[in-house]
Model the fold of this input.
Amino acid sequence: NFHNHFYNGAHETRLSHLTSVRQGRDESVLDFVKRFREIKNRCFHLMISKRDLTDLCFAGLHPNIRERLEHYEFININQLLHKAISVE
Done:
């Protein structure tokens, strides 16, 4: 397998990186979600459900956006993204 042969793990992102991703003060929801997904895509060995991943993404949103969305249930990041953009 090409990946296992050439991959040394030096650039692998871990769950702790994902849990610490936060939306920047002047960062749009769309840009934050793109950045979150890019970091997730570097977590090669991460086993996490879509729901848990969505919860991590939600936790990284600005507090004022989280407050407006706290009564919603999100099953995936796309659903979260669309709703978050509508309250941004």
Summary: The radius of gyration is 14 Å. DSSP finds six helices and no strands in the chain.
